[in-house]
Amino acid sequence: MPATIRFDGQVAVVTGAGGGLGRSHALQLAARGAKVVVNDLGAARDGTGNGLTAAENVVAEIRAAGGEAIASAASVTDPAGVQEMVDQAMREWKRIDILVNNAGFLRDKSFTKMTLDDFRAIVDVHLMGAVICTKAVWEIMKQQNYGRIVMTTSSSGLFGNFGQSNYGAAKMALVGLMQTLSLEGEKYGIRVNCLAPTAATRMTEDLMPAEVLALLTPESVTPGMLYLASRDAPTRAILCAGAGTFSRSYITLGDGVHIGERPDAVEQLVAKLDTLADRSKEIVPSAGFQQSQMEVAKALAARKQ
Ligand SMILES: NC(=O)c1ccc[n+]([C@@H]2O[C@H](COP(=O)([O-])OP(=O)(O)OC[C@H]3O[C@@H](n4cnc5c(N)ncnc54)[C@H](O)[C@@H]3O)[C@@H](O)[C@H]2O)c1
């Protein structure tokens, strides 16, 4: 068995952690030794009626179990509020090792019925919320020469889902953000990854039958987040997690066919669709330049023939 994964001495910020997946992430990080900033919207209540916000209730749970936590009521879409949250964590604990970008909500509609406001609201919270929080901790992590950032993407972004064009676009944008930040963060010890969860939460309770929801506990997803937030985390990974099953997803590039510049290039391309669809030589590029490298190499090879 690998050694127990612990976060002693580390500080984690989990956004949208008043309920659902974020709450499970915050509780587990704290149980494994991390000091946790539990962020959720100030107005968010968890229905217990005890006068506390959802984030404050999670903080109380962590403290009751002997852990350390503070609540933040900032909206991830508010740069000043996020900065205050980060400043508070730095005042209390002097470092931030882990950021789990988890906050968000849905505004599902078919594209026909979706307004631009519906689209922007979702891009704002999922993409820009993650950008704002990441920007606020980036310099701190650089200075520390250590950071772990987990973006919460979704199968809706990776593979598409009817009625979720706004959400899918925002969630796939987080994969793009992760791809570049993992490259830029590498020399500073910052590792950036994506988690694609499936869980029965407020977000999904109306979408699936009860017996399916019973399998999809947030707690069965959280080990995936713990791995991506751990000292031995990979970087640039997309990890799918749900009902205790974990799988990797990849953005790949096929080997390609060289056609060259010619008047009938499109007809030549159509004639080679079978070769184009051949996935046997697919690679996972280590950066965007690998596409142009492959294209130029094929063009030069064709010129030599
Ligand atoms: N549940 C799933 O099956 C599933 C699938 C794929 C991705 N996700 C993603 O996982 C993350 C967590 O979702 P969940 O299922 O636990 O839903 P949830 O609704 O239980 O939790 C999301 C939390 O984010 C908070 N939040 C919303 N806007 C915020 C803001 N502006 N600032 C701070 N907090 C805000 C909400 O108050 C809520 O507590 C989301 O990013 C979601 O898109 C969930």
TrEMBL record:
Keywords: Oxidoreductase
Secretion signal span: none
PROSITE patterns hit by this protein: ADH_SHORT
SMART domains, alphabetized: PKS_KR
Domain of life per record: Bacteria
SUPFAM superfamilies per the UniProt record, alphabetical: NAD(P)-binding Rossmann-fold domains
GO MF, any single term: oxidoreductase activity
Transmembrane domains' residue ranges: none
Location of the Ketoreductase domain: 10-198
Family assignment from sequence similarity: Belongs to the short-chain dehydrogenases/reductases (SDR) family.
Protein name: 3-hydroxyacyl-CoA dehydrogenase
Annotated source species: Noviherbaspirillum autotrophicum
Record lineage: Bacteria, Pseudomonadati, Pseudomonadota, Betaproteobacteria, Burkholderiales
